[in-house]
Amino acid sequence: MRKVELKMNEQFKYEAIKELHDHGGNKNRVAIKLGITVRQVNRLLKVYKEKGKAGFVHGNRNRQPVNSLPQELIDTIVNLYRDKYQGWNFLHYTEFLNEKENFKVSYGSVYKVLSAAGINSPKIQRKTRKERAKAKLRKDNPKAREEEIEEIVSYEIALEDSHPRQERAKYFGERVEMDASIHLWYGTNKSALHLAIDHSTGRILGGYFQKEETLKGYYCILKQILENYGIPYKFFTDNRTVFNYNRDNVKKEEKDVLTQFGYACKTLGIAIETSSVSQAKGMIERANQTFQGRLVNELKLNGITEIDGANRYLTEVFIPDFNNRFATPYKKSDSVMSESPDAEKINLTLAVLSPRKFDNGNSIKYNNHYYMAYDKNMNLVCFMPHKECLVIQAFDGNLFISVEEKVYKLIELEKNAKESENFDIKVDEKIKKKTVYIPPMSHPWKRALFVTHQEQTHQFHQYGF
Fold first, then answer.
1. What confidence tens digit (pLDDT) does each residue in 145-156 have?
2. How far apart (Å, rounded) are the C-alpha atoms in residues 235 and 12?
């Protein structure tokens, strides 16, 4: 005869009914003891008389629930994660199973399946981290008391998770947090992802990849903000790296982000606030973590290994999807965004400004090349030696020069002449003559103004006044 094994609750119920059947007693007392009704006690007595101990085995034992996942699907979920989606957080993986792999499974089912297979999520919950830390302490300190282990682990976990909670800004555009995250986003080399997020809605306003944290990266996301949303009230960023560093005498102008970006913001009327405390800009820090957990895997899944493809996927696919999933609709929020400037002003405002002086040859040196100033009719304009000026490299790369109250076009001085009077066929001057576009002096392109701003900014961040 096959031996019948009961679970603990089944054994407890069996022994109480057996005792009642064999020796008699009060059925009400047994019902209270088992937490059931007298009617159920009578039913169990009948089961005991007919089937004995075997009657107390639950009828669903060893039967697969009708709502459980088929074993074939379980194997597919595990194999896909190990082969194709390894390292993804479970929620992100579940979304792609439903949207890309055409499986209709819940997050709870995926979590149970992967956990049963010995796979842990990269975003381990606090309770799981605590249990693992305890196990490690027990292994390293076998003689430690359980109370000591509990106290040590609780303190360490609480310290890791502690951060001040902040209220969100009231208005859209009131506070925009910016940062650059250096990470192995694609390919084999690390790069910098420049991001901007609105503190009120949690909406990503701009994103751009560069090999390093640079002025161009911040200019590109500022351009995205201006074109898509308007002029925000304030930027909040960190007080280190490119926004505040120890400058030297050979630092190039385009790398002096503190001055260049700050001057562009001053021109547009955007305030800048900085902080060296990462928790103060927790929203952008958290967004960086989410991007590292999701974007890296999606770039890898799509076979993107170069910067141009990464920027296209970032702006055309990932950021719109991120905003749809996690951000509050900004059009339903009260906004303090000012009207966006036109494309020409954006191009000229997001410029690299560099103070220079004309040399004895009526030229200036910029990026190891010599340039001369021309008016809109392409006539050479001459200046006295050592005349102070301001070189303007617009966002699109065009070069201009501001001298006192006028702006001129800069043309590179070639090492060799383009035409020879002795050997080349002469072209009619009327056909050869061209005009170039020179923007009006509506922008604050004055050398003295920029130099003053530059000195004040550096002095403030160096001495605090």
1. 888 888 877 766
2. 67
